[in-house]
Amino acid sequence: MTALFLRDLRLSVRAGGGSLIGILFFLTVVAVIPFGVGPDLKLLSRIGPAIVWIGALLSALLGLDRLFQAERDDGSLDLLVMQETPLVLTVLTKCAAHWTATGLPLVIASPLLGLFMNMNETAIGATALTLLVGSPAITFIGAVGAAVAVALPRGGLLVSILVLPLTIPVLIFGVSATYAAVEGPQPFLPPFLILMALTLFFAVLGPAAAALALRNTTD
């Protein structure tokens, strides 16, 4: 599993720019918002957490279609399915590597982008914390869409269509927890705990559903 994690981590960084493309897209989405809403600093500060979360969500969707594509192209996908190691554990390892290469850089970049939106220290910290907790759920959900579309020649758009509606609860509670942290420490806990529960839920359900889809694809 360690060798698979390191292999997928290298492939995620090399394939199409990996985390660099995600960060550049994240920066582009957040940077153009002030030009659209105008120079109202109070408005930017108010909508900043939501914009950063939306930008991170859209950036996380990039590259999800390549989660199993390398194995599909070189024929090793059948070996992953037939090996003695449980396929669910293999999918979980690949999701961890993908998030480390593409999701974690977004979390690290979010404080800098929060400054573009005139967010205060509390909002920036809460946004980074909620992204750290909630963004893995996007990868786990995306693994299911990537497994369903792995046999399709151009499944990238299909993966986004399948994944985006399922990520809405993660977006809602991530933004809600961030706004609650600005108002006070107590309202922050309920949505933040729900966000953690969603990540744990999809950490179990996502790899299992993706493994089932991969088995059906290779049959």
UniProtKB/TrEMBL annotation:
Domain of life of the source: Bacteria
Annotated transmembrane regions: 12-37, 43-64, 85-108, 128-150, 157-182, 188-214
Membrane topology: Multi-pass membrane protein
Record keywords, A-Z: Cell inner membrane, Cell membrane, Cytochrome c-type biogenesis, Membrane, Transmembrane, Transmembrane helix, Transport
Cellular compartment(s): Cell inner membrane
InterPro entries attached to this UniProt entry: Cyt_c_biogenesis_CcmB, Cyt_c_CcmB_bac
NCBIfam families, sorted: ccmB (TIGR01190)
Record family assignment: Belongs to the CcmB/CycW/HelB family.
Function: Required for the export of heme to the periplasm for the biogenesis of c-type cytochromes.
Descriptive protein name: Heme exporter protein B
Species the sequence originates in: Rhizobium calliandrae
Gene field: ccmB
